[in-house]
Amino acid sequence: MRHARRRVVRRVTRLAAVGGLLLGGTMVTRAMADEPPAATAPRTYAQEAGDMGADLVHRLGPSRTAGAWMGADGKPVVAVTDQDAAAQVRRAGAEAKVVPHSMNELKSATSTLRSAPRVTGTAWAMDYRTNQVVVRGDSTVSAADWSRMTEVADGIGGFVRMERTQGTFTTRINGAQPILSTAGRCSAGFNVTDGQRDFILTAGHCGPTGSVWFEDSGADAQVGKTITQSFPGNDFSLVQYAGGEAGEGAGVVAIGDGKGVQITGAADPAVGQRVFRSGSTSGLRDGEVTALNATVNYPEGTVTGLIETNVCAEPGDSGGPMFSEGVALGLTSGGSGDCTSGGTTFFQPVTKALEALDVQLIVATPAAGGADGSAAPAPSASATQGALSPGAASPGSSGPVAGGATGEPLLSRLTDTRNVGPGLLVIAGSLVALAATRFIRAEQDRKAYRQYYSATWS
Question: What counts of helices (H) and strands (E) characterise the chain?
Fold first, then answer.
């Protein structure tokens, strides 16, 4: 029965691999009343590598380091400024790269850029791998403004790299398409809760506080209302469900073909980490994290602390989820280009949004298998996510998404001409993120996802 459901709130405490750094995070799982509490979610390879690199950077300090990233072999690489620091990094089991400029110098450069007159259409981030600060200007930046910014960069030093980029840095909302909210069409991100009510966590630029969200372009059925927004500065907002609850399967992100990915927790990504993004316009796409703490000067204002990636996104993908290995990482904010020519896309970190909003991620029940590398049983092709028992699929694995007629694929429902707009993923109450009319286009990316996670999929 519906009232037999209960929430299980659990505190996950983990010890980093290096230096005894203690971290903690709160997650919420959905379970049935007769089910035992779920086991602690497994640590992912990226989290282990990212935590090792971050802890070494913290212990050695910003004057002796200049960031960390994941190498091609998945091993953490730490940029250091002296040989003694390099030796400490190697003894800890990570790779060291000696560089000329420290994190203090890189941060000083970004501070100087922030203090200069604001130029819409520019963005910058620290590129740990090249030990530079990269400043990008889109097609809207005039020659005069670019020349002035170049003078600022030259005054900082030779480690600031200036790049022009095609397209424009814009938020990924499109008011000309069938809308999900009154402000324009966006994508649902992740489902979250404050313990009493459930919400959709999405991008802040999608609409101001009070924006009403609908299931269809005709605005016939209300899904919820934006109750909190932070944009610019940050880029996140909360949409409270009109019915108060997200429903069963709320911890699943749809990736197309009627499949979903179980979300088991939230974390910060590492530079070099492979990630996936799902959106209501372009579907599932993949790429890697290229920088952290990026700053973007959108036409609407400046947003800081973003995750920079080379994953493509298009108008309408705003607010959609970015994840890896079943872990929530970010919300699509904006960028340049499209999924034909490629481009740069920025994401609001999920961890920062959860902390600022004082809410917890609603996660799927972690599987018993897969944590130690063993295969987990495959879920039934006709089962709904709500019917899956704990351990029926491993974290990050493929599973059916709930809602609609039994056995009816999500893709079929989304492309049915009777159903207009990406809000269908919300009406089902089983999708955390979404998918709309162009999921077919992302078939190659779905294949890439299946290939990348073949070790943890049944």
Answer: 8, 25
